[in-house]
Amino acid sequence: MPDLLIELRSEEIPARMQRKAAGDLKKLVTDALVEAGLTYEGAREYWTPRRLTLDIRGLNARSADVREERKGPRTDANEKAIEGFLRAAGLSSISDAHVHSDPKKGEFYVAHIVKPGRDAEDIIAEVMPMIVRDFPWPKSMRSGAASARPGSLRWVRPLQSIVCTFGAETEETRVISFEVDGIVASNVTYGHRFHAPEAITVRRFADYADKLEKAKVVLDAERREEIIGADARNVAFANGLELVEDEGLLEEVAGLVEWPRVLMGSFEESYLEIPSEIIRLTIKTNQKCFVTRQPGAERLSNRFILVSNIEAKDGGREIVHGNGKVVRARLSDAAHFWKRDQGDLPDPDTLKPSAEKFGLDLKKPLDQRMAKLDALNVTFHAKLGTQGERVLRIRSIGLALAEVTGADQALVARAAVLAKADLRTEAVGEFPELQGIMGHKYAVLQGEDAAVANAIEDHYKPQGPSDRVPTDPVSVAVALADKLDTLVGFWAIDEKPTGSKDPYALRRAALGVIRLILEGKARLPLLPFFDVALKALRTQRPDLAGNIATDLLAFFHDRLKVYLRDLGARYDLIDAVLTSDADDLLMIARRVEALTAFITAEEGRNLLAGTKRATQILAAEEKKGTEVADTVDEKLFSLDAERTLHASIQLASGDAREAIVKEDFRSAMAALSKLREPVDVFFNDVLVNDEDKAIRANRLALLGLIRSATGEVADFSKISG
């Protein structure tokens, strides 16, 4: 079966767009071919800075004929109906139609239509121009003389050539010719821009990839990453250093070069006085270079790894020299930011009102930055006020949370008012990724308590499922306060996540609260603290929304389900313990854990079956309006099974209730497991729907006790199985 090779070669595609663009090309082409009736064995996409490539194997040479039946009017229909049928079916005469009989509808005409298949080459030539013209680039441009014409091609960067070859491995490939804005598809491509600028004639993928390799182009992006990673580690090792790994940078750099060559540069050791985070971001952001360090050390070395796209005749000396000049200039700027942030602001007298509001010491640089942040009225959100107002709310919430986390209130208050101060530092202004980190460093330099400095950095955490969760009580209090203020605030202004859209990262904030509570084993009832956060907000914005607690708690429940499910918990077990007003997330998690252990044991499974039977019978009778006694009357018992079950329920309920008070849910489950045998015996020996109305009502009330007893720990009716 034939193979199809497509290459779209252009000027340099931004690295961040390459992977998705190659995937889009694969999906668009394969979807179009399948829709046209073709099948294929496999497809793989490739990308370099200057090309998107698609290799499709085992493509049908021709689409299959399509046969369909089109039902027409009855044979005794009027002439106009028959003429309409002939036109729609493409028949020249009614004699070309077939007559089918139906016992109910009589005889009617049917057209047997055969749509012949099409050559794959014709299909490809038809779909490719549309795919190229409508390609979903995030940003695109027009170029060249043709760009002045209406409807001219838009592409991410000027499109230069198209390769499209087709043929079986045992045959000579053919060029599928089509044209897009003056660019005609051919079998000609070009290699490396500088090392191999000559035209290359290609046939099929293996030949294409081999010739590109000889022309200094490594087609496979993953292989370029492997080359860069391995060579960078080897160069670092040869110099007694180790590479500081960065997967994101590695992928980006692999998207900047077609023929990667790894080199090492250096800068003056005096720049190592700058924090390592600033050095790393400066070199990464501005020069796309990797940093190194002594093996096992935290502090960076003054050597960096760069990746060139050419084999320089001088061994790369000029490239290293040029990159080194830029790195030094950027580090000089970074050193300037670092020193400026430790000095006084030029207008301290204007900051006194803000300093008094927050209890700041204007002799300290970080305090000055917080006062400046407030004095400038920097907006957090148009409907939620300034950053200064938000800091006041975080402090208020944090002080309330300190009682739960066991944190020192004075330290929480101090950490809260300094938490956002580094937003006014020049280092964070240049590198927003360092907010919190720089606040921590500046806090240490001005002599803050270690708990305060740590909380300034950690109050943003956790920022994702793999991020570290703070454990220090001060950090936990400020981190929770920050996230609860965010969530309550955006709920109050009705800016909630919708579908896949979550512009304020509220799902991440809720997950952060959940992880802080569960992984920190914190007993934090959410509803009272929603009220604390809302009260702090209404002090500043009295016109904002009223009761948001129910809806926000439901949002937390949804996030909790996802979190617990990712840890392996069953959805039905989570639903079984989760009530609409449950706001103690740690308690919910412990109940789920205990229920999981209980249900996986034989006694738990058997009790579940008996309980569900009791619940279903009771629910069915309640639905029919059958009378159920308010209380169980022991005088109406006539069988030992009734008496035994009643006594067992009273004993098990009492034991389970005591265990729940102690939050020992496993013991509560163990107490309920004792109901297994008396429940089984009851259903074997007792007819619930007795003819005597009073006895029936009493026995249904007994089933109600089973439901109530198990309901102390979970709603067994929601458990599957």
What's the quick description here?
It is an enzyme of class 6 (ligase). With 721 residues, the chain is α+β, with helices and mostly antiparallel strands.
Task: Note down, in words, how this protein is organized.
This protein is α+β, with helices and mostly antiparallel strands and 721 residues long. The chain folds into 5 domains: 158 residues, no CATH class; 50 residues, no CATH class; 122 residues, no CATH class; 221 residues, Orthogonal Bundle (Hypothetical protein af1432); 127 residues, Isoleucyl-tRNA Synthetase, Domain 1 (Orthogonal Bundle), CATH 1.10.730. The chain is built from 26 helices and 18 strands. The strands form 6 sheets. Strands 2-3-1-7-8 form a 5-stranded antiparallel β-sheet, covered by helices on one side. Strands 13-15-16-14 form a 4-stranded antiparallel β-sheet, sandwiched between helices. Strands 4-6-5 form a 3-stranded antiparallel β-sheet, covered by helices on one side. α5 crosses α6, α9 packs across α10 and α16 crosses α18.
Strand segment tally: 18
**Shape assignment:** flat
Query: Span from first to last CA?
Result: 49 Å
Major beta sheet summary: 5 strands, antiparallel
Would you give the CATH topology of the largest domain? Hypothetical protein af1432
The strand line-up of the biggest sheet is: 2-3-1-7-8
Q: Structural class per helix/strand content?
A: alpha+beta
Specify Rg, calculated over alpha carbons: 36 Å
**Share of residues in strands:** 5-15%
